[in-house]
Amino acid sequence: MIVFDVVNRDGQTQSVEVPEGINLSLMEVLKASEYPVLATCGGMALCATCQVEVVKGIEKLRSPSDSELDMLDQLPKLTPITRLACQIKIGEELEGAVFLLKQEI
55, 45, 56: which is closest to 84 by C-alpha? Predict the structure, then answer.
């Protein structure tokens, strides 16, 4: 199992466990875990409604793609640790990571 933490907009932290080898994005796992993630574009990196801050573990993630960087550049409050959850694939590099939900609904 891969275990990482999610901090919701109220500051509460919850651990999320997902099986290794699943072919899902962080956005899909968050939605399936009933976190309030809009993801209006369906994971195409076109809307930024699934943005998160990678509070811990960003150094283990793959670099953002050009399409993700283009969308991130349009955000009014971009930080060096802001990423789109739809572009983060579930894998062992997420073990121990901490994600902060950012997009308001």
Answer: 45
